[in-house]
Input
Amino acid sequence: MKLQRASERATDVIGRKRMWQLETLVIGSLCAMIAQKFIKVVYGVARHDKSRPTPFDPSYERFSWPNALLWAAAAGVGLGVAKVLGNRAAAAGWQFATGTPPPGKDSSRDQA
Output
């Protein structure tokens, strides 16, 4: 209850849209850090061989094409998962703190 009142006061001062932007910025930053770790883990698991890898830089000349493509696939999966989780976490946090759907989100929409 106290959290909801504090949230209402903050949104009155700052505005709902700006508060939502701040929340998504913070959650997005956290998810980006987690995604970076996740991408490196997925890449390491998918690489299979345990030999000393080339420097972890796809633009490095000794970074082979198969490794570069594997890195691109791992990055795509990692960033996609992070984006979805970040959006869902931000919306859930907003709903919990304010008791209302985030700005621009219609609560009457069917969720698939």
Summary: Residues 21 and 103 are 9 Å apart (CA to CA).
